[in-house]
Write a structure and sequence with these properties.
heterodimer, A: 506 residues, mainly alpha, two-stranded antiparallel sheet, 22 helices, globular, B: 327 residues, alpha/beta, D-Maltodextrin-Binding Protein, domain 2, 2 domains, 5-stranded mixed beta sheet, 10 strands
């Protein structure tokens, strides 16, 4: 332990060097804006800023890129909350409650909760990273296809089993998501499938961001227009010191789900297959299920913002672990970090920690500092962010529309996807109008491909024997929890009826 | 704002640093660097190394942006390039699925011979790897014995049905007389991880994917499939030395879409030739077991692709297309 402590102090000292500190600050600031702008994804952002990093030594460069990555994680929440457009796929779950909060004039609370939850998530995960990187890396190796599949089942269970949503409609929504996720090339045989109308454009599948921006950006815009008829003045800009204090007092309402999200996010992030988006969605589902008033989720519960935000930040730190120890990046942005490392002659792998301790610990030290810098920057910028909402919706709606179109086109570079996004937006609006929950469809399109791959890999390797899922202990535990979550409403409903009957009998 | 200013200034400085002596054509927007495989694999590492070298050496006025399109054993990337006909700002980092995927999936109607040949960066080595914990397996003979004993439940991980490693696996099945269960993963990096975690029993990975695990003594190579032994695997026998008639390489080349302007093709050819001859690239080749002795471009590369396509048609015929596409 002593040696870890020494290394960490050295790493922290390294990140306090003026150049590195400046890199952290610049990286966080740039990341915040890149993350907040739908369309200027962190992948393009990092790639464009890569040349800047050649002007400084490798450790400073990777610190810059990591800070950028961090900042973008925070920034994603900003457009999710203020505009209802997920700035990045990781921030989709933040829309679920962040947008309703903004619409009811509590954008500042939502942004504050997002910032604090991100800070807690980031800090807890970097502490876990510092203390337990090697055993966690070993644990990640134990995760084969069977365990991945069980974990995915668990994620679906958190969405089906709990809360007040209509269960058949939830399942229907999940199925729509799964169908859309199946479009494109078959994962195992490599053959094209579900190519609607034989259009070759569908071969590339339906990109997740196209669906998310369509359903949330466009769908919500139509919905809001219909309901407000353009009349509402959304928000008064009022964010003084007193407001900060009262918002800080609110922390107790979401601290539980923040901690839960932090641990869950970190854990899911360390698994090479998963990443921050599933982590955020799972965290949202769990927060909802453990909450006393699960029904208020999706209507503007502050815990519904804190849970995914803590998880996506924790997962972004967590996914550094497979990148550094196994050389497998968990996201396109970590892939660019990995590219940077290769250029500087740092080879990620099991030996990196012992062979390049200065680099690894400099990076870890910088994560502590970057967390702090981002939370301060973020809170300081909240007044600017909420100014957006002071605009009447008649002005805001065309801006949202443009950002959705630009955002999709910039991500995929295809007009086809822009049309598809508009179509899916109308579909999202109809689903909402018919009272179907859309979040489960979003969850399904994220997790569908991961689930399918792990299921088929498991069954191929077990020669088609489904017992393989319950023969392996980690997988069995996940499946049992999933079954418990799904049957919980039925059981609790039964118990309630029993109790009522007993009381009636007395 | 200050930051933005610094940014635009550094971008401007970079643009000026670009060599003025080159042909008049230059990229006018970021170049999409399409990788037909997943993150962490050999092609991915190479693309990211090249991207970094291009930027650190200031060889292009616009950045190269690596984008992974691993779907359908590279079909996603190939369809994408096919759809980019006449585009001057898209390049493909190709491997052998460049040949195999169009052969196996005829319905895609992809003809890679129409693509613009930019340059061949390297020939990569294939090795057979097992987890170091498998003490009883020390050479090819004990490996074959173990596979036969497992009776088709031996799990070989790979990067996708119809990918080059599945062909090599099928060639081994035929030559060595056993059957295995082939499990596809989304990239060479993930395959390596699953071998270390004992989720699969063996794989034929390229060195760059296994290098760090090998150095950490997590995995060990048994055979290499090159004609001659290659650095840094001088003590690993070739299949031919062991009397197994398999010689198979992975090509690492760069292509553009069909109909790319000749000036653009020439510009990219110059760029990649310079990269090929750079110290950094040659060092990478040595450390990661790639053969980079000859720069091939233009017509010569087109002829090379042609010959390789023919060879892959024969190979796939010999092992049978069914044996490499999963049920």
């Amino acid at each position: 332990m002593d040696s870890i402590f020494n290394l960490l102090v050295a790493g922290l000292l390294q990140s306090f060097e003026p150049l590195n500190l400046a890199m952290i600050f610049l990286g966080c600031l740039a990341g915040l804006f890149i993350g907040a702008m739908p369309g200027l994804g962190s992948v393009n952002g990092v790639a464009i800023l890569l040349p800047v990093t050649f002007l400084v030594p490798p450790t400073s460069a990777i610190i810059f890129l990591a800070a950028l990555y961090y900042g973008a994680m925070y920034g994603g929440a900003v457009s999710s909350i203020t505009l209802g457009i997920p700035g990045a796929s990781t921030a989709v779950a933040t829309v679920f409650d962040g947008r309703p909060m903004a619409q009811s004039g509590r954008a500042d609370q939502a942004l504050m909760a997002a910032a604090i939850a991100s800070f807690v998530g980031g800090t807890i995960s970097v502490i876990l990273f510092t203390g337990f990187a090697p055993p966690l890396a070993a644990f990640a190796l134990k995760f084969g296809p069977q365990e991945e599949f069980a974990l995915m089942l668990l994620a679906f269970a958190t969405f089906i089993g709990l809360g007040g949503d209509d269960i058949p409609k939830t399942i229907f929504s999940i199925l729509i998501g799964l169908v859309l996720a199946a479009v494109g090339f078959d994962i195992i045989s490599g053959k094209p499938r579900l190519i609607f109308f034989g259009m070759v454009e569908f071969q590339r599948g339906i990109e997740f961001l196209v669906l998310a921006i369509g359903i949330y950006g466009i769908g919500e815009m139509i919905w809001t227009l219909e309901h407000t008829k353009g009349a509402v003045q959304m928000h008064k800009v009022d964010f003084g010191f007193d407001k900060v204090k009262s918002n800080l007092r609110q922390v107790k309402d979401y601290i539980g789900s923040t901690f839960l999200g932090s641990f869950l996010g970190f854990f899911v992030g360390t698994l090479p297959a998963a990443g921050a988006t599933p982590a955020a969605l799972m965290s949202y589902g769990l927060a909802k299920s453990f909450s006393k008033d699960g029904d208020s989720f999706g209507k503007g519960n502050v815990a519904g913002v804190a849970a995914p935000e803590s998880a996506n930040n924790a997962a972004s730190t967590g996914s550094m672990l497979p990148m550094l120890t196994l050389g497998i990046p968990g996201s396109p942005t970590t892939a660019i970090l990995l590219g940077g490392m290769i250029i500087w002659g740092l080879r990620p792998g099991p030996l990196l920690f012992s062979e390049s301790p200065d680099f690894v610990w400099g990076l870890i030290g910088s994560m502590y500092v970057a967390n702090f810098v981002t939370v301060v920057l973020n809170i300081a910028l909240i007044p600017i962010f909420i100014r957006v909402l002071a605009m009447p919706f008649t002005v805001l709606a065309p801006i949202i529309f443009i950002l959705c179109v630009v955002g999709v086109f910039a991500t995929t570079d295809r007009m086809f996807d822009t049309w598809l996004m508009l179509l899916l937006g109308c579909m999202g609006y109809l689903m909402r109008k018919l009272n179907y929950p859309v979040a489960p469809a979003v969850l399904a399109i994220v997790l569908g491909p991961l689930t399918e791959r792990s299921l088929r890999q498991s069954l191929i390797s077990s020669q088609g024997d489904p017992m393989t899922f319950i023969e392996r202990p980690i997988s069995l535990i996940c499946i049992l929890i999933a079954v418990g979550l799904v049957s919980y409403p039925a059981i609790s409903g039964f118990m309630k009826r029993r109790r009522a009957e007993m009381e009636a009998a007395e | 704002m200050k930051f933005l200013k610094t940014l635009t200034m550094s971008a401007a400085a970079l643009a000026m640093m670009a060599p003025a002596a080159m042909a008049e054509w230059q990229p006018r927007k970021p170049v999409e660097f399409i990788i037909m495989a997943g993150t962490g694999g050999g092609a991915d590492q190479i693309a990211r190394l090249l991207q970094g070298l291009i930027q650190s050496k200031g060889l292009s006025p616009r950045p190269f942006i690596p984008i992974n399109k691993p779907g359908g054993s590279g079909a996603e990337a190939l369809s994408y390039i096919k759809g980019k006909e006449g585009d001057n700002h898209t390049l493909l980092v190709a491997l052998n699925s460049f040949y195999t995927t169009p052969i196996i999936q005829e319905e895609l109607e992809i003809d890679v011979t129409t693509f613009a040949p930019i340059g061949r960066m390297a020939m990569d080595t294939f090795l057979l790897w097992v987890n170091s914990e498998q003490d009883e397996i020390t050479d090819l003979e004990s490996y074959v014995a173990a596979v036969k004993a497992a009776d088709t439940t031996w799990k070989v991980g790979g990067t996708g049905s119809g990918q080059e490693d599945s062909i090599l696996t099928a060639m081994m099945e035929k030559e060595l007389g056993y059957k295995v269960t082939y499990i596809p993963f989304p990239g060479g990096g993930t395959v390596a991880k699953n071998l270390v975690g004992n989720q699969i029993d063996s794989t034929v990975n390229n060195p760059s994917e296994q290098m760090e695990f090998w150095r950490a003594k997590n995995t060990k190579p048994l055979v290499q499939f090159n004609g001659e032994r290659t650095e840094p695997f001088m003590d690993v026998p070739t299949a031919k030395e062991l009397g197994v008639d398999i010689e198979y390489y992975m090509q690492r080349s760069i292509s553009g879409p069909a109909g790319m302007d000749p000036e653009a093709v020439a510009w990219y050819q110059n760029l990649f030739e310079e990269l090929f001859n750079s110290e950094e690239w040659q060092d990478y080749c040595k450390s990661d077991g790639l053969t980079c002795d000859k720069w091939i471009t233009g017509d010569e590369l087109a002829a090379f692709h042609d010959a390789q396509l023919k060879r892959h048609v024969e190979l796939i015929e010999a092992v049978g297309a069914d044996s490499i596409t999963s049920k």
